[in-house]
Amino acid sequence: MLVTVEVKSRHVKVTGSRGTLERDFKHINMDLRKVGDNKLRVDLWFANRKQLACVRTVCSHIDNMIVGVTRGFQYKMRFVYSHFPINVSLNGGEVEIRNFLGEKRVRKIKLLDGVKYERSADVKDEIALVGNDITKVSLTAAQIQQATNVRNKDIRKFLDGIYVSEKGPLPERDLDEDLEDNTPLDDGDSTACKLLGAFLKLPLGPFTFRLLLVLVCFDFGLGSKDPEKIMNQAVEDMQNDLVKVRQSYAEITATQRRLMKQKEQADALADDWYKRAQLALSKGEEGLAKEALTRRQQQVETSEGLQIQIDTQATAVDKLYEGIQALEAKILESKAKKEQMIARARTAQSTQKVNDMLGGITGKTSMDAFTRMEEKVEALEAAAEVSAEMGSFNGKALPGSSGSSIETQFKMLEASSSVDRELEEMKKMLGDSSSASKKDAGVDDELERLKREAGL
């Protein structure tokens, strides 16, 4: 569905197939702008926790505006009463509530702009409030519920009122409407239809194309069995069941109270006929007294029959009340476990994805490619070392090698001249050491000769 969003000085305007919604966020110190064709960006610098919550609230408001102009919102409300039926009607732009708790006062609630009042066709005591702006729809529903709040009485016994039973976006078009839609396709769908028809080698019209799309969506949408969606749906179903059980409890309680009132009336009439029989007998009217006792006996039998029904209703009410308590406890337990189960399901899904990814790193994958490249580099290095050794075999350059260049020949000449100089220096050192040894030997001989002459 095509949605147009305009942003100007923190004023957002959203236009869709159902109409236009506008909202002003100038009271919030933030930056709000469009990023691309289908994104809005909300920036708030150096924000604390409350300001971050405010940013999330702004994003939720904009999301609700987009849903409102494309699908709309609906609040369903049901009537709960025990003895006096609640009458609700629409008079102009006001909702009128009559006979609440038997009161003659008429309660009037004005419908806000853009909110429509509808009477449910398949449910007896139910109305629906429909509109694009969720704020106005929910506020109207709250005003209707507050108008029928029971005051100064025990709310555990007096359950009369009008309560919200269901809320959320309007349901999308039914499957039958989608399948029966033979309107021309747009450019994108028309191209996809042609490509799919060419692939299947079958002529596809709008009806057949939409049927295939529905089947594909059904296969991939419902076949996934998302645990989070299933648990949310289960909790929602239990809450709907709780509303139905409470309505049944209210109806049975109302019936029981009516029976009790009828029994009280029968007992009172029986007492009256008994007193009349005594009066007639005291006046000597025996036939009239007998007729009064006959009427009294009829009222006594009626009272006894009503008492049997009251006892039966009391048992049913007790069981139903226990069922309500058990269902409420089950809902609370399910809500407490839901978050834990959702977290466990997400963890299991993440673990499965990681295991699948690690399991895919086998065979001819990136790890094997890395190993092959490492072996190839080592082979190139070994070939380079062998080439270097062959290029300088026995200090002589091989033909075609880099050692046959002029620079290499000069380096060899310089190396040979340095070796010659070192050899001459060693010879000189050896010559000096031999002459010194000869001088030392002559001195020793002369010293020995002097010792002999001295007679030593």
TrEMBL record:
A Pfam match: Ribosomal_L6
Record bears the keyword S-adenosyl-L-methionine: no
Record carries keyword Ribonucleoprotein: yes
Gene3D superfamilies according to UniProt: Ribosomal protein L6, alpha-beta domain
InterPro entries cross-referenced by the UniProt entry: PspA_VIPP1 (IPR007157), Ribosomal_uL6-like_a/b-dom_sf (IPR036789), Ribosomal_uL6_a/b-dom (IPR020040), Ribosomal_uL6_CS2 (IPR002359)
Key words, A-Z: Ribonucleoprotein, Ribosomal protein
Family affiliation: Belongs to the PspA/Vipp/IM30 family.
Name the UniProt record assigns to this protein: Large ribosomal subunit protein uL6 alpha-beta domain-containing protein
Biological source species: Cyclotella atomus
